[in-house]
Write a sequence for this structure.
């Protein structure tokens, strides 16, 4: 049972908690595919979506998820709120609490910001990406797409290639996939792999071929141009030629392997266009998994609140 007030990361999520979210998300995904988008699991509740960073997928899918569940949704972009006048995160949280919001979905450029907000407010907080720390619902939607394809997560070989250093997606996937019994391989230029990933359970590979060979899942990560310091790699062209995934590299994966990317993609950099649009690409399916996973997370956190079981 997801007996939590907040969903902040997968670092401490158990196999049972992840399985419960994925099971419910799978059910919701089937319902969405059948056009059943009106559920009342959150009717009478308010979900505020508070983003201090740009987003397309995460913001819209959380909003869609809350609407499909029958909640009232409020969208706050930091640039147009009192944050722009200097209001602190704690004071913003207190204001949202005073308005009796039930859930706050927050994206913030500082790692740890959702933990501070969660301590401040009575509302449940869902981390929609905090700096270079975690992006739990992204990893959950990635795992949903993998589990639907292969019927399991245990034993899968997942190769993650790209800007691992700046990636909250890589960390949440590593925590979640290791808990579920998958093997996580990572490859990037040395300047884009933080020290200690091996101690967290990742297998660090010395070439893209080593990472992809025999893999079930090949996941590209965006080169985060906005977070790069000069000198991490010579140029985007050289990155693509030496570290990117093209058809020749992907051919080393298992014949039924799938291609994932959390988006947004730098086309032709971390993945070639041929790989993005490949018949084994599940990038668009990931987007639908995102709505379903966020519906499941909101539903289960709400049940824990209603039942007085939100003990963590
Ligand atoms: N995957 C992801 O977080 O995408 P957005 O930045 O568009 O939300």
């Amino acid at each position: 049972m997801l007996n939590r007030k907040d969903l902040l990361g997968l670092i401490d999520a158990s196999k049972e908690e992840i399985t419960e979210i994925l099971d419910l998300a799978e059910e919701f995904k089937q319902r969405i595919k059948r056009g059943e988008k009106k559920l009342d699991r959150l009717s009478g509740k308010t979900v505020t979506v508070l983003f201090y960073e740009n987003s397309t997928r995460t913001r819209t899918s959380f909003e869609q998820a809350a609407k499909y569940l029958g909640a009232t949704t409020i969208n706050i972009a930091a640039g147009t709120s009192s944050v722009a006048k200097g209001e602190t995160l704690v004071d913003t949280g207190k204001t949202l609490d005073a308005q009796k919001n039930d859930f706050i979905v927050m994206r913030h450029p500082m790692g740890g910001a959702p933990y501070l907000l969660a301590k401040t407010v009575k509302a449940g907080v869902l981390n929609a990406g905090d700096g270079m720390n975690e992006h739990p619902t992204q990893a959950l939607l990635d795992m949903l797409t993998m589990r639907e394809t292969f019927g399991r997560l245990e034993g899968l070989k997942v190769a993650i290639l790209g800007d691992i250093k700046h990636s909250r997606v890589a960390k949440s996937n590593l925590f979640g996939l290791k808990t579920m019994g998958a093997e996580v391989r990572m490859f990037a230029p040395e300047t884009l792999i933080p020290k200690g990933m091996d101690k967290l359970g990742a297998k660090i590979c010395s070439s893209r071929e080593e990472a992809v060979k025999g893999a079930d899942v090949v996941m590209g990560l965006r080169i985060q141009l906005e977070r790069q310091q000069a000198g991490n790699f010579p140029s985007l062209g050289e990155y693509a030629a030496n570290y990117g995934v093209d058809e020749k590299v992907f051919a080393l994966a298992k014949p039924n392997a799938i291609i994932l990317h959390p988006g947004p993609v730098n086309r032709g950099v971390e993945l070639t266009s041929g790989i993005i649009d490949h018949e084994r690409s599940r990038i668009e399916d990931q987007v639908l998994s995102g709505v379903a996973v966020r519906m499941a997370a909101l539903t289960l956190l709400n049940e824990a609140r209603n039942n007085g079981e939100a003990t963590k």
Notes: The mean pLDDT is 95. Residues 136-284 form a domain with the Rossmann fold fold (CATH 3.40.50.1370). Strands lie at 46-51, 72-77, 103-108, 124-130, 157-161, 183-187, 203-204, 217-220, 258-260.
